[in-house]
């Protein structure tokens, strides 16, 4: 969101020439051939077939369609399309359906921002995408794209935002992804991607947001992830990683959200996670984590959502009553049979869904001195329900798809 706002800001900062008379100056018009290409794209894509009539000068500031932004050329005085948005807006009538075969004609535009989201575009991402070399932000999310992520995409060196989420893309992420050194936001979540996370992501040192959740990624994430010092959001739930939790994640000082749930992680929670002082959300639920909860987790002063449920964690919970109160129902430790609460905080045990420890003053150092729960608690954690993040694909009545 921040990045999108930045873009909007950048675009609106560009001085606009607003015409006040009906006589169009050359600098108010588009290059005639570019205009014809734009018309032909719109006529094939738009449900509004009267594009030529309704928008004789689509770039004219006062008359342009909401999905278009234009800028004055540097070498000529014409207006050029710098942004094209094809998004399904429920309350607006500028709904488009996009055909795959029309991609090539788009290479004509030096657009910086291209959004084709929640349309029903299908097929592969064409290699010709590399010709859109001015792209700074590419959003193809919530479509029906299939096939692999083309390596040509990695030639778009100016990309700051790349969102391919909620499609059906398959295969591995090309190692060439490391060429996108400007990238701040990368979202590949909810696809069918496989393989391991390529080592080259360590070169994406501008990254602030990376989402790879709901895919088929597996294996140890690259050690070089620790280089991404600006990373604030690492969203990787629901992948068959089946490895130990990477200690590298503990070296990302700016991390605010770390989501690694449902991913077959085993071993202990690395103590170094306690050094993620800006962490607000830690989701490790539904893995195969063992051992104690690291003592320092209770020191994370910004955390407000901690889910460690459905693991094999054991021993005494290292949180004081202040911590337990602060997180309230956003703390979930249920489904860890061997976890127990210090009797001094026994009052809270029902809410937490854990039992009370049968020794008050010891902490588990190893398995031979394991603290056992006193009794089975009937308590259940109050479930924290959030509105489902589902976008319903409404029938758009697309012509020609
Ligand atoms: C959208 O189009 C329909 C039918 O063409 C029309 O009835 C409706 O008023 C339009 N809505 C807006 C917001 O323009
Ligand atoms: C934590 O966040 C604050 C506010 O966003 C920021 O000023 C600070 O630098 C961050 N801490 C680290 C270690 O990055
Ligand atoms: C937690 O914070 C307290 C007070 O700052 C400190 O004494 C203690 O060593 C910290 N514990 C860990 C495990 O970092
Ligand atoms: C924790 O995760 C479990 C399993 O996914 C889920 O059912 C529960 O609602 C979550 N709890 C919280 C507090 O987010
Ligand atoms: C495990 O705990 C037992 C009993 O407290 C102790 O004697 C033993 O040294 C511990 N082993 C290790 C490896 O810490
Ligand atoms: C306390 O835990 C030990 C195992 O560490 C177990 O043998 C004992 O029965 C437990 N006591 C109670 C009262 O549950």
Summed up, what is this model?
With 401 residues, the chain is an alpha/beta fold. The chain is 11% helix and 19% strand.
Verbal overview:
This is Leucine-rich repeat-containing N-terminal plant-type domain-containing protein. It is a single-pass type I membrane protein. This protein has about 400 residues and is α/β, with parallel strands linked by helices. About 10% of the residues lie in helices and about 20% in strands. The protein is built from 6 helices and 22 strands. The strands form 4 sheets. The protein has a 12-stranded mixed β-sheet with strand order 1-2-3-5-7-9-11-13-14-16-18-20, with helices on one face. Strands 15-17-19-21-22 form a 5-stranded parallel β-sheet, with no helix packed on it. It has a 3-stranded parallel β-sheet with strand order 8-10-12, with no helix packed on it. Strand 21, helix 6 and strand 22 form a beta-alpha-beta unit. The structure holds 2-acetamido-2-deoxy-beta-D-glucopyranose (6 copies).
């Amino acid at each position: 969101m921040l990045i999108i706002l930045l873009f909007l800001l950048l675009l609106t900062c560009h001085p606009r020439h607003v015409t006040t008379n009906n006589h169009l100056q050359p600098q108010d018009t588009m290059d005639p051939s570019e205009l014809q290409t734009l018309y032909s794209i719109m006529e094939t894509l738009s449900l509004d077939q009267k594009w030529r009539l309704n928008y004789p000068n689509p770039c004219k500031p006062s008359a342009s369609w909401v999905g278009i932004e234009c800028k004055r050329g540097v070498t000529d005085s014409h207006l050029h399309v710098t942004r094209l948005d094809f998004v399904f807006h429920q309350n607006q009538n500028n709904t488009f359906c996009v055909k795959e075969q029309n991609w090539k004609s788009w290479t004509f535009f030096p657009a910086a921002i291209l959004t084709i989201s929640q349309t029903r575009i299908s097929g592969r991402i064409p290699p010709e995408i590399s010709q859109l070399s001015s792209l700074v932000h590419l959003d193809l999310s919530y479509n029906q794209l299939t096939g692999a992520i083309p390596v040509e995409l990695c030639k778009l060196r100016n990309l700051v935002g790349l969102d391919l989420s909620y499609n059906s893309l398959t295969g591995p992420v090309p190692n060439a992804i490391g060429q996108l050194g400007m990238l701040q936001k990368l979202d590949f979540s909810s696809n069918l991607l496989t393989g391991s996370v390529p080592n080259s992501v360590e070169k994406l040192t501008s990254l602030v947001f990376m989402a790879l959740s709901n895919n088929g990624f597996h294996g140890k994430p690259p050690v070089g992830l620790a280089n991404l010092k600006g990373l604030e959001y690492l969203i990787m739930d629901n992948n068959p990683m089946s490895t130990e939790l990477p200690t590298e994640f503990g070296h990302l000082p700016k991390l605010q959200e770390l989501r690694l749930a449902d991913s077959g992680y085993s071993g202990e929670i690395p103590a170094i996670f306690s050094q993620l002082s800006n962490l607000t959300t830690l989701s490790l639920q539904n893995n195969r984590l063992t051992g104690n909860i690291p003592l320092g987790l209770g020191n994370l002063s910004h955390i407000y959502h901690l889910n460690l449920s459905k693991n094999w964690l054991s021993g005494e919970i290292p949180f004081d009553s202040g911590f337990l109160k602060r997180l309230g129902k956003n703390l979930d430790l249920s489904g860890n049979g061997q976890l127990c609460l210090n009797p001094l905080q026994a009052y809270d045990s029902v809410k937490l869904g854990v039992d009370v420890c049968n020794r008050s003053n010891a902490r588990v150092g190893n398995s031979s001195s394991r603290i056992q729960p006193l009794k089975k608690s009937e308590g259940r954690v109050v479930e924290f329900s959030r509105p489902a993040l589902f976008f319903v694909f409404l029938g758009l009545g697309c012509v020609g798809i």
